[in-house]
Design a protein that fits this description.
The complex is a heterodimer of chains A (296) and B (672). Chain A has 9 helices and 11 strands. Chain A is α/β, with parallel strands linked by helices and 296 residues long. A 6-stranded mixed sheet of chain A has the order 6-5-4-7-8-11, with helices on both faces. Chain A is elongated, with a radius of gyration of 23 Å. The relative contact order of chain A is 0.15. Chain B has an 8-stranded mixed sheet with strand order 15-14-16-17-23-22-21-19. A 5-stranded mixed sheet of chain B has the order 4-3-2-5-6, sandwiched between helices. Chain B has a 5-stranded mixed sheet with strand order 26-32-31-28-29, with no helix packed on it. In chain B, helix 1 packs antiparallel against helix 4 and helix 9 crosses helix 12. The radius of gyration of chain B is 37 Å and the shape is elongated. The chains are: A alpha/beta (296), B alpha/beta (672). The interface between A and B is medium-sized, with 43 and 27 residues. Strand 9 of chain A pairs parallel with strand 1 of chain B, so a sheet runs across the interface.
């Protein structure tokens, strides 16, 4: 496959990801026939119920055995298998352009991996960034053949989108009213807070996964001396003199920040996972996200 | 003690210094040049900083710890500057002369509850004083006991001063400060010269501080002017110190039985008088042990009241030769005088020449058995003094004692002499006024002198006598109402005694009368026995001959060998040669104990060196008494404070440490 050469996803990873599928904790109505159960009854092999025949019904679904015994026409209902709507929402702000690999790079890999799983299972995959305008939705991808397009799209994502988390998520919600799984990949570093943004997603009644990507530099800063820290997004400056108490205090703040996000999400039925950019993507998907129930 | 500060800096310098602390603060509040660093978000950092800011003043202080350290450093530098030159800009070089008493009483161990002896304390104080010397200061150390010794000449070399100070050793000598004062004054006062021949590097006459470290157990110094010396007296020793001391220990053979030895000891107790009622009943009991050649042979217990003495007497038979040691078991602070030694040498007959026209009572006394045991007495007429034989014999020191009865030689012989009703021809003795006939009244005899220890002159009448004016250094043995009539004085290692009245007969109105009834008294032969024993030297050799520490021991030479070997109590041997006066003189009698005299591998003599010095044994200090040095009367200081301490070096060192800490914190601040 053409995706084998992708820098985002290695062939080995792809092989392992092929066996997985995205799981939604909710059953949503799809738009096209897919591999997902749908609340709609339809054509599949999985029996759902009987109902009395009314004229106009497809006579192919009449249960003839029952008719032979009861002399009444019953219609056999099957569970409809539909596609799943999977959204990956990538925070491509300037702050994501840090770390080795950069948090954005890591977010892209993660989105690619999850998108690949979805494409393989014929789900409806849409990858978007926060910076996209309300009227400019990302491409809808479906089927294995779209892997290349997805990759193309991902590689085209550049850091430095000047949009806040709140606005980005609101725009996303405006663009995509449908149900499904949304995975927000962000560092949540927004001075206005992440809470309002996540409330939007919650209001969409989507199955929300928040993957909180933090770089090693943020988790364990190796700074010394008198520094003037410049915020890459708003050029805000913070003058610090690095000392043991300050570093300790930073760690406490960071723990409170992560813990706060985790608690916020848990209370509202969202899944939260703190992800460090050093963690290999396959390990993350195969272990952490499997435990979280996003994939199986 | 809060250090005294001296204004070293001029006002404008102070002004400059005063500007420095605000300048440091101002500089500190200037923006620190910080390295810019782009971070994903200052979100978490800001929160962290805010959290820190929330914390109180301490956080602010912690942040400005470098500022505080700098201010501290500045303060330390200021203090160092203040102390740098303690005595101001025009400070003169200071000269100090330390007089350290190393006499016997300074061995009293009563400083700090018996931790140190007085001498150790004196040395410690002087060492402290040396530590506080400043550059340009010079000090000199003189130790003194009965003589003075320059331990270290004027120098500013503190290590050398300390080294020499350490070399001062305690002595067993008595105390006399006058030599030391003269030495010190020789350097301080123009027109005087130091007594010490080594004192070539004597400094120019400059005023000097004279610091005396002593227990001040010496008599008042008169005949001395301090001149440029500024004396400061440091009393060392506790006021409540007491001591039990053997002040005398002697032996004497029994008159008739030479193998029987009588031992007498006098033990004095010195203590501070607390109150009159209390002192009356306060008795202490000490155990007195007598050892012969190291083994205990007798013991006694003695109760002594405060500042009184007790006597013990032991009588032992079958002692021919040996060393007797007396020990007092008293846990007092001065151990030197708790032991005393007496030696018993083989009695030896001495040669005595009695020159007289004839004196029957004396000859009778000499004919007694005990006198015969003591000496071989030759009788001669005064004419014999003119003969060549006499000249030869007396010049060669053949006689130990020559008794001139109402006659005198032309030249003093090299031997002890006793002149009866005559004067030695050397002019040192003077014939005082004649006492009117029949008016001679004996009022006192010197009981402590061996010659007068036993004779009792209470019922003695003397008809005619003259007043004996002895040379200095002698002792008056019999005092009459009109002056001394019997005196003894030393002469070049010999002793001359002059009896100012005749023991013979005088003629009046054609009748012969005895001049004194003493000749018929029972104490008369005793007196002559003592004369033979003491002046004849028999006592000195025959029994307990005592030498004071540092005194010269003399052995009259009748030996074949020109040399004798003397082994001191520490088993150190030294050789002594016979001198021109036919004497072996040994001066190194510093140690207390028994010395052995050997000649040709034969032990010929023992002698003991004992302290027997009441002034040294009486180690009570008297802080309330003033010490008179010449015309000046000085109070002694009891509360000694170390003088200046040079603090600035430590402050500078502390400053350096602060600097290092600051540097460390600056570089490794994550640890704070």
């Amino acid at each position: 496959m053409s995706t084998a050469d992708s820098p985002l996803l290695s062939p080995e990873l792809l092989t392992r990801l092929e066996r997985l599928e995205l799981v939604s904790r909710k059953i949503y109505r799809g738009q096209m026939k897919g591999e997902r159960r749908s609340p709609r009854k339809g054509q599949s092999v999985e029996f759902a119920d009987f109902r009395t025949y009314v004229p106009g019904d497809d006579i192919r679904f009449i249960d003839w055995n029952t008719y032979a015994r009861l002399d009444k026409l019953f219609l056999k209902l099957f569970l409809e298998e539909e596609d799943l709507h999977f959204y990956a929402l990538i925070d491509a702000s300037q702050s994501m352009n840090f770390g080795d690999p950069t948090k954005l790079e890591y977010a892209k890999q993660l989105a690619a991996a999850l998108g690949f799983i979805g494409l393989v299972r014929s789900d409806r995959v849409r990858i978007e960034t926060l910076g996209q305008g309300a009227q400019a939705p990302g491409p809808v991808l479906r089927g294995r053949k779209s892997v290349w397009r997805m990759q193309q799209y991902l590689e085209g994502i550049e850091p430095g989108e000047p949009v806040s988390l709140h606005d980005g998520v609101r725009n996303f919600c405006l663009r995509n009213s449908g149900k499904g799984i949304v995975v927000l990949i962000s560092d949540l570093m927004d001075k206005d807070g992440y809470e309002s943004a996540l409330r939007y997603l919650m209001a969409q009644q989507m199955d929300v996964y928040v993957l909180h990507v933090l770089s090693q530099e943020e988790l364990d800063p190796e700074l010394t001396g008198d520094l003037r820290l410049v915020d890459c997004e708003d050029a805000d400056m913070a003058e610090i003199t690095v000392s043991a108490p300050l570093l300790k205090r930073y760690q406490q703040t960071l723990s409170a920040f992560i813990g706060g996000a985790n608690e916020f999400c848990s209370r509202r039925g969202m899944s939260y996972a703190m992800v460090r950019n050093q963690m290999p993507v396959d390990e993350l998907v195969l272990n952490l996200l499997r435990r979280q129930g996003l994939v199986r | 003690m809060w250090p005294q500060m001296t204004n070293l800096l001029a006002p404008w310098q102070w002004a400059v210094l005063a500007v420095v602390p605000p300048a440091i603060v101002a500089l500190y509040f200037l923006k620190l040049k910080r390295a810019p660093l782009e971070v994903p978000s200052t979100y978490l950092w800001r929160k962290s900083i805010e959290d820190l800011h929330v914390n109180s003043l301490w956080q602010r202080l912690r942040r400005s710890i470098l500022l505080l350290l700098q201010l501290l450093l500045l303060l330390i530098i200021l203090l160092a500057l203040l102390n740098f030159s303690w005595r101001g800009e025009s400070r003169a070089e200071q000269r100090t002369i330390y007089l350290i008493d190393n006499s016997a009483s300074m061995q009293t161990r009563d400083v700090d509850g018996g931790q140190r002896t007085r001498l150790e304390e004196a040395k410690r104080r002087v060492a402290d004083a040396i530590d506080t010397m400043q550059s340009g200061d010079a000090a000199m150390i003189i130790s003194f006991s009965d003589t003075a010794q320059v331990v270290q000449q004027y120098t500013g070399n503190r290590p050398e001063l300390r080294r020499q100070l350490k070399s001062i050793q305690p002595t067993n000598h008595s105390t006399s400060i006058i030599d030391a004062l003269r030495l010190a004054a020789g350097l301080a006062n123009p027109g005087r010269t130091s007594d010490d021949p080594n004192d070539l590097a004597a400094a120019d006459a400059v005023p000097a501080e004279l610091r005396v470290f002593s227990d001040f157990r010496f008599s008042t110094v008169s005949d001395f002017a301090l001149g440029n010396l500024e004396p400061k007296l440091d009393l060392i020793g506790q006021e409540d110190t007491g001591n039990v001391a053997i002040v005398n220990f002697s032996t004497r053979r029994h008159e008739d039985r030479p193998d029987m030895i009588h031992t007498f000891a006098r033990i004095q107790r010195y203590a501070q008088e607390d109150s009159e009622e209390e002192s009356a009943d306060d008795e202490t009991t000490v155990r007195v042990e007598l050892l012969l050649d190291g083994s205990l042979i007798d013991a006694a217990e003695l109760s002594i009241k405060k500042n009184e003495f007790g006597q013990v007497e032991f009588t032992r038979e079958d002692i021919e030769v040996g060393v007797l040691e007396l020990r007092v078991d008293s846990k007092d602070t001065l151990a030197l005088d708790d032991r005393a030694w007496a030696v018993i040498n083989r009695p030896e007959r001495r040669r005595v020449l009695f020159v007289s026209k004839g004196n029957e009572p004396i000859e009778r006394a000499f004919s007694s058995e005990s006198a015969d045991k003591l000496a071989r007495i030759e009788l001669a007429q005064p004419e014999h003094l003119e003969s060549e034989d006499y000249k030869k014999d007396s010049e060669s020191g053949l006689y130990d004692l020559i008794i001139f009865d109402e006659c005198a030689p032309q030249k003093m012989p090299p031997s002890n002499t006793l002149f009866i009703n005559a004067l030695p021809p050397d002019g040192r003795w003077k014939r005082g006024d004649d006492i009117a006939d029949g008016e001679v009244q004996v009022i006192d005899t010197e009981k402590t002198h061996p010659l007068m220890k036993l004779p009792d002159l209470g019922d003695v009448d003397i008809y005619r006598a003259f007043n004996v004016e002895r040379p200095s250094g002698g002792v008056d043995l019999i005092d009459s109402a009109a002056g001394s009539i019997f005196s003894i004085a030393p002469r070049d290692g010999y002793e001359d005694a002059v009896l100012g009245f005749s023991l013979g007969l005088f003629r009046e109105d054609g009748e012969l009368y005895p001049n004194t009834n003493w000749r018929n008294s029972r104490s008369f032969p005793v007196f002559w026995r003592d004369v033979l024993a003491y002046l004849g030297g028999t006592e000195a050799r025959g029994s307990s001959s005592n030498v004071s520490p540092g005194d010269t021991y003399q052995l009259r030479g009748e030996l074949q060998s020109g040399e004798v070997k003397i082994i001191d109590p520490a088993e150190k041997s030294s050789t002594v040669s016979r001198n021109r006066q036919n004497l072996y003189e040994f001066t190194d009698t510093q140690q207390l104990g028994v010395y052995q005299v050997w000649s040709d591998d034969q032990l010929i003599q023992l002698f003991a060196v004992n302290l027997f010095d009441r002034d040294e044994s009486d180690n009570r200090t008297r802080p309330e008494e003033k010490v008179r040095l010449g015309l000046t009367e000085l109070a002694v200081g009891t509360s000694w404070q170390p003088a200046r301490r040079e603090l600035w070096k430590w402050l500078a060192l502390l400053g350096l440490v602060v600097l290092l800490v600051e540097w460390y914190i600056y570089n490794r601040r994550v640890y704070l």
